[in-house]
Write a structure and sequence with these properties.
Layout (H helix, E strand, L loop, with lengths): L14 H22 L1 E5 L2 E4 L3 H7 L2 H31 L4 H12 L6 H11 L6 H8 L10 H29 L3 H9 L4 H12 L1 H16 L3 H6 L11 H11 L3 H32 L1
Antiparallel strand pairs: 1-2
């Protein structure tokens, strides 16, 4: 009987990965933790303040308003993009050149850089030169995202839906293509309706894909910065000022590195907690089925 020989030298193969993660994630995170417990006056003068900045951040009313605004925005775009992405995936062709063409057209918004997306919608929403703004004016709607908080909010949501619904659609499309044909053959034999096929075959098979899509879209929407910054600059007022913009204003605009570091850690923990709740809830729903 031969004994299995373990070669621990194989761990050296993953050493580059650990080094990359250390330099790109762990070391910056520890730096932020260090800043969050100090009052920094200049690169050489700093004082330990313990949890003072965390108390200040947690009790800050501006943080509470930005947090509520952020949750409302994230849940709004998820409520729109997930059903819409499923519908788009169901309508996309599955064979021939038309399928390839549909995939290319759907993926185009995902290829556009975030700052360019904000610029596109900045022009698109103007009443004088933008198609959307001119259309709203032509039907008698007083639309102005630069001065009306409601219009600014709706424009940012619409911009995100246009930009990121294709991601959900492509994920769902890949999940639909992975369903074996025998399921559809059995449904045709049983003369199942289109809704029954979707309800009992397609939707259950899309569960894992939708979990990935929801988590990706939530994390990305919860950290949104560039698009609304380019489009509205966080205004009018603070109607489109989200957590990321508040953090940048505090860190760079006011140069409050200590409170900003505490803010960023609280921000990170909120994202981590909500994603964990999302994941565990969906997995428990799967087990109950």
């Amino acid at each position: 009987m031969q004994t299995k020989v373990e070669n621990n030298k194989a761990w050296f193969l993953v050493l580059p990965v650990f080094l990359i993660v250390a330099f790109s994630a762990i070391i910056p995170l520890m730096t932020v933790v260090n800043y969050s417990v100090q009052d920094i006056f200049d690169p050489y003068t700093r004082y330990f303040v313990g949890t003072e900045w965390f108390k200040q951040v947690i009790l800050d009313s501006r943080l509470h308003e930005a947090l509520l605004r952020q949750f409302l925005y994230s849940f709004t775009v998820l409520a729109i993009e997930v059903p819409l992405g499923i519908c788009v995936a169901l309508m996309m062709p599955t064979k021939g050149r038309s399928a390839s063409l549909a995939l290319i057209l759907v993926a185009i918004p995902l290829l556009i850089p975030w700052n360019v997306v904000g610029t596109i919608w900045q022009i698109f929403g103007r009443a004088d030169i933008g198609l959307f703004g001119a259309f709203m004016s032509s039907i008698g709607v007083d639309y102005n995202y630069a001065s009306n908080p409601t219009d600014a909010w709706l424009t940012v949501v619409l911009m995100d839906v246009w930009h990121w619904t294709p991601l959900v659609a492509l994920l769902c499309y890949s999940g639909l293509r992975a369903i074996p044909e025998v399921y559809y053959q059995a449904a045709r034999i049983d003369q199942a309706s289109r809704w029954a096929v979707f309800r009992y075959i397609q939707l259950p098979k899309l569960t894992n894909v939708l979990i990935i899509g929801v988590l990706l879209r939530f994390m990305d929407s919860f950290m949104i910065y560039t698009e609304p910054f380019v489009l509205t600059g966080g205004g009018p007022g603070s109607s489109t000022t989200f957590l990321s913009q508040s953090l940048v204003q505090q860190a760079i605009g006011q140069f409050d590195l200590g409170p900003a570091a505490a803010f960023s850690l609280v921000y990170f923990l909120i994202i981590l907690l909500v994603c964990w709740v999302f994941y565990t809830t969906i997995m428990n729903m799967q087990k109950d089925k």
